[in-house]
Specification:
The longest helix is centred in the last third of the chain and has 21 residues. Helix 3 runs parallel beside helix 14, helix 3 packs parallel to helix 26 and helix 4 packs across helix 27. The chain contains 27 helices and 20 strands. With 609 residues, the protein is α/β, with parallel strands linked by helices. Strand 12 and strand 13 form a beta hairpin. It is a peripheral membrane protein.
Length: 609
């Protein structure tokens, strides 16, 4: 019996090894493509020549190898990977500029980012940094945030407690212990669990790369949960885990605060997903020099060099299929005209719900395999953004290169639940959680580009249903009641900002605007106003869900990329692109990026000697 079991295990290991280490396809990380750094382009007209190339049928390249729907980092990422091995790729974006959540916009002389607030895990020569260097040919530069990079504020104005969050694998827990004497064991155990779960994320990628029958075998035998601590902890909520560690309510809040970065209150959030975010920032946090638009600006030319294009104002209204249910292209709306664009492969970065529910013919939507995937996922929380333009420099306003997480108290589950279940006008008057960041304070080029001005980007949550009645109105004219509701949110949130940042006064506020869930629907195509894609609750991180929702769809030649393939955020969407590229190119690009990171480190080290 033991001999048979050993043979089965050996065969299984060999089979997994074959797919994990497969290298038959072309490698986009074969050579180091970093080029000497070029001067930063600050002229918007020059940047817009790259970022705002409008769709025309005459601009579509001939003999396409692939079409990508959506120019967020998940779409641009896979397009660049394919371009680096000679593929001609067309990226189609419904908005008027490329970049998805990496785009910026300007109002009254203030430039605002919409989704890039800070990125972790960017130490030199680490795989993630190496991958980004290669996807931008070394032209995208990063500025580290201050340390502490986060400030967690708990309680009402009369009893506020502020806890600085430091980066550093040892410094993070060591600093916490200074604030919470007697809780050393709880902090150490939290760190042990976070690191063990977060570092096991590779198994999630494995389930998406190996053949479906093998993935199902690992799932249904329970081996996935036994072999991976990530999946072992995935069904446990953040609240459940941290409440077992300590009875100190403020420490529980500190353990949990980063849930805002993926959108689920702690009692609904998977501890494994939470662990990923904590691990992501253990080595520090960074911001793109020149602003978030630099990301797309340096990726698009690589796509173009291979004969492809990134075209905006190109809303895809359906994916085209032949009689064999194979994807053969897309239909783009140009005014009232449908323009068909054909390619042997279609890759969607539009999200699983848009792709399956909006872009497929009804008969294909009804396929059991499609419905099964949809049944495993649900829409994430609606996002609320406030954009604040201020008169004064960062020194004048007391702004630093860090983030503030402001909560009205430590009982985070209760705060969020009461807020989201409340009457919209009453909830708008008292937003219980708020993320506050200053892009202008983080970017060392800001003062040169926008002297005497500063910005704040604020993020919270809001129910899509609070705004749904205005979803079909013209985006610039949604009526008085809509504007009044937004104003309530703006007023109450501004009060919080003024109380936390004493150097910011009302006379310094030159511009304030709110982006609601239906704003997100219009500009980034989020069906329910979500900013993190599909929901990141415990169900999303079951082994079965991750073995089922993968880059290959049930329809031949149609692939998924981005957040919904892997996890949310910039790094998660890029991991989705890397996983999608691995499947298409038939090689493990994750391992290729690791190999190149090691190689470039050796080369760069020799140059310094």
């Amino acid at each position: 019996m033991w001999i048979i079991a050993a043979i089965i295990c050996a065969a299984l290991a060999a089979f997994v090894y074959k797919y994990v280490f497969r290298t038959s396809g072309p490698n986009p990380f074969d050579i180091d493509t970093r080029a000497p750094l070029k001067p930063l382009v600050t002229q918007k007209k020059e940047k817009n020549k790259v970022l705002k190339q409008g769709f025309l049928a005459s601009k579509v390249p001939e003999k396409l190898d692939a079409i990508v729907i959506g120019s967020g980092i998940g779409g641009l990422g896979v397009a660049v990977l394919l371009a680096k091995v000679g593929k001609r790729v067309l990226v189609l974006e419904q908005h008027d500029r490329g970049g998805g959540c990496c785009h910026t916009f300007t109002e009254k002389g203030f430039e605002f980012d919409v989704g890039i607030h800070y990125i972790g895990d960017l130490l030199e020569h680490k795989p993630f940094r190496c991958m980004l260097d290669q996807l931008t040919n070394g032209q995208l530069q990063w500025e580290p945030l201050d340390n502490p990079f986060d400030q967690v504020v708990l309680g009402p104005p009369e009893n506020r407690r502020t806890y600085p969050i430091y980066s550093g694998r040892n410094r993070f827990p060591d600093e916490l212990k200074k604030f919470f004497p007697g809780e050393e064991a709880a902090i150490d155990e939290y760190m042990r669990l976070v690191k063990k779960a977060g570092h096991n994320i590779w198994f999630l990628g494995l389930l998406k790369l190996i053949p479906v029958p093998l993935a199902k075998f690992l799932v249904y035998t329970g081996l996935a949960n036994r072999l991976s601590f990530f999946f072992h902890m995935a069904s446990r909520s953040v609240t459940e885990v941290v409440n077992e560690l300590t009875k100190n309510n403020d420490l529980r809040a500190i353990f949990s605060y980063i849930f805002v970065t993926y959108g689920n209150m702690p009692k609904d959030a998977s501890f494994s997903m939470h662990s990923l975010m904590v691990c992501h920032y253990l080595t520090g946090a960074w911001y793109p020099i020149g602003g978030a638009s630099e990301i797309a600006y340096h990726m698009i030319p690589i796509i173009e060099k291979a004969g492809g294009a990134v075209l905006v104002r190109a809303p895809v209204n359906r994916i085209l299929f032949n009689d064999n249910k194979e994807a053969i292209g897309v239909s783009v709306m140009k005014g009232q005209e449908e323009i068909h664009v054909h390619a042997p492969m279609v890759i969607s970065n539009a999200g699983i719900f848009n792709t399956y529910q909006q872009l497929l013919p009804k008969e294909l939507q009804a396929m059991p395999a499609i419905q099964k995937q949809l049944g495993m996922m649900k829409n994430g929380a609606g996002g609320l953004s406030i954009f604040l333009g201020l008169t004064g420099t960062k020194e004048d306003l007391g702004l630093k290169a860090d983030n503030y997480w402001i909560f009205t108290e430590h009982n985070m589950d209760e705060l969020v639940e009461t807020y989201l279940k409340g009457n919209r006008e009453e909830s708008a008057k008292s937003v219980p959680l708020l993320f506050v960041a200053s892009p202008s304070a983080k970017d060392p080029t800001w003062e040169e580009r926008s002297p005497g001005k500063s910005t704040l980007s604020l993020v919270s949550f809001a129910n899509y249903e609070w705004f749904e009645e205005w979803k079909d109105d013209k985006v610039t004219n949604r009526g008085t009641e809509y504007k009044e509701l937004k104003q309530i949110f703006c007023d109450s949130i501004l009060e919080v900002v003024l109380s936390v940042f004493p150097k910011i006064t009302r006379d310094k506020v030159e511009f304030i605007e709110a982006g609601t869930p239906i704003t997100n629907t219009h500009y980034i195509g989020a069906p329910k106003g979500e900013i993190y894609g599909a929901d990141h609750g415990t169900a999303r991180f079951s082994a079965e869900c991750n073995a089922t929702v993968r880059p290959q769809t049930p329809l031949k030649n149609l692939y998924l990329t981005g957040q919904d393939v892997f996890v949310c955020g910039f790094a998660g969407a890029l991991a989705g692109a890397l996983t999608c590229g691995s499947v298409i190119l038939n090689r493990n690009l994750h391992l290729d990026a690791i190999a190149l990171a090691k190689k470039t480190k050796r080369v760069d080290t020799k140059k310094l000697k």
